Amino acid sequence: MAHHNENDGGMKSGEQAMAVPPRSSLSSRVVWPLVFVLVGVGAWSLVNYAAGDASAGGAEAGQKGGLEGWQGSLEPAFASAKEQGKPILVYFSADWCPPCKMFKAEVLTQAATDALIKAETVPVLIDVDTLQDKGREAEVRLIQKLGVEFIPDMYLFSAAGEQVSRYRFDPSQDDLEAAFAAWLREGVKAAKADG
């Protein structure tokens, strides 16, 4: 006859007892999730500190992306381009994108390039992370029409809105700033001829 007591849960002879984990204390139920959150926040902060400020090399000017004087949406930029008779430079980027940060720091925010861009074009920065925001329909249509799949990606349009040229940033080029400036000058000349 099998002997049963209160602690064996009515087990029959020959059955093995299953180990039941002890109930966790309130402190362990609160402390461990808090530790994970703090470690995550610390890691995120460390990564951002190590990567440097996303706007390094250019002033914020109240615009995400840190390219001072660049417009943030297409419709006013195209209106400005028509009014000024300048081509429009459309740049697709994001703050989290390492090649975008490099392109901005080593090319777009350099004094000579910045001056050339602003003298010859109406520049527009389209942050791809804002495309789901309300009022970004024109930007979404353009990115779909162009088939933009990778960033950084840049296009030059005539003042009339015709695509003239596309620039793909290549960090392996010898002189990044000179390569971009040559592309921009050639594109502006073509845009004005079309215009």
Protein described:
The chain is α+β, with helices and mostly antiparallel strands. The protein has 6 helices and 4 strands; from the N terminus they run H-H-E-H-H-E-H-E-E-H. Strands 2-1-3-4 form a 4-stranded mixed β-sheet, with helices on both faces. Strand 3 and strand 4 form a beta hairpin. Helix 4 (111-120) packs parallel to helix 6 (176-194). The longest helix is centred in the first third of the chain and has 26 residues, at 26-51. The radius of gyration is 28 Å and the shape is globular. Residues 1-9 and 30-64 have low confidence and may be disordered.
The share of residues in helices is 40-55%
What integer value in Å does the Rg equal?
A: 28 Å
Q: Can you summarize the main beta sheet?
A: 4 strands, mixed
Question: What is the helix tally?
Answer: 6
What is the first-to-last residue Cα distance?
102 Å
Number of strands: 4
**Structural class by secondary-structure content:** alpha+beta
Quick summary:
By secondary structure, the protein is α+β, with helices and mostly antiparallel strands.
List the helices and strands and how they pair.
Layout: H1 26-51, H2 74-84, E1 88-93, H3 98-108, H4 111-120, E2 122-127, H5 137-146, E3 153-157, E4 163-167, H6 176-194
Helix pairs in contact: 4-6
Name the descriptors.
single chain; 195 residues; alpha+beta; four-stranded mixed sheet; 4 strands; disordered N terminus
